Amino acid sequence: MTSSEVWTRADAERYDAGETETSSAAVLGPTLDFLAALAGDGRALEFAIGTGRVGVPLRERGVPVVGIELSEHMAAVLRRKIDEAGLPVTIGDMATTVVTGGFSLVYLVYNTITNLLTQDEQVECFRNAARHLEPGGRFVIELGVPPLRFLPPGQVAVPFDVSERHLGFDTFDLVEQILVSHHFTADGEDGRYRRSDSRHRYAWPAELDLMARIAGLELERRVEDWDGTPFTQDSPKHISVWRKPVPGRPGGPETTDVMS
Predict the structure, then answer these.
(1) Per its UniProt entry, which superkingdom is the organism in (predicted)?
(2) Is the distance from CB of 129 to CB of 217 less than 8 angstroms?
């Protein structure tokens, strides 16, 4: 049983309207370029595909895409955009759900691995990615670097957006590595705001690298963004690529057991 919070019907119906900026061609283009290049002539599997913000346009680029999604309501919104034959989606969690066939690319964008609220589940997510990858295939994660440098002693909250129609800030439990994202969003023109929050387990890049090693994957590349900006100690997020070794090739194991 996953610890992830499940998106409701109301959440799903509002989701695309709230992501118009991240769905724009200017923002999404580099993401699609990056993922399509890694997929090559193979198939791509998106964990937590949601309403298809990335998966649908990637499929339109000619990459065969399959999705796993925990929320039936999010998947229903995706289904309005493309039919099952064009982009199959299996309802289930990204740590344990298995779909048929092999993939050259498994990807997980927009901080979504943090929806798994325990380290064990995040490790199983890496194992599940490796389970689906063909030898030489890649697992890609987009994830923010925890902004703990902005926390002075005694402070537990960090704002991440202060704008006319939205106020967002994160609060942190530093012992359990849990952050709660709080949102106050303008709802209509009558001055009312809608409040929402969500729980996440944050993880550092080095911790993800260890999870990858447990799953039999090797770090191939880490950059700051989809444009390939070099990753530094000041980068607010990272795009990390791990590769499943090809048995028998130099630097790779003779066998890779990822099914246990």
Answers:
(1) Bacteria
(2) yes
* Both tokens assigned to 230: 């070099």
Torsion of CA 167, 173, 178, 184, to 10 degrees: -10
pTM across the whole model: 0.89
CATH code of the domain made up of 9-146+203-243:
3.40.50.150
Q: Which residues pair with 200 in a beta bridge?
A: 179
CA 175 to chain centroid: 23
- Amino acid letter at 136? G
The per-residue pLDDT string of the chain (260 residues; one tens digit each, 9 = 90 and over) reads 577 767 678 878 877 676 677 777 888 999 999 999 999 999 999 999 999 999 999 999 999 999 999 999 999 999 999 999 999 999 999 999 999 999 999 999 999 999 999 999 999 999 999 999 999 999 999 999 998 988 888 888 889 889 888 899 999 999 999 999 999 988 777 778 888 899 999 999 999 999 999 999 999 999 999 999 999 999 999 999 999 999 887 655 443 333 33
CA dihedral 6, 10, 16, 21 (to 10 degrees): -90
Domain boundaries, the chain: 9-146+203-243, 148-199
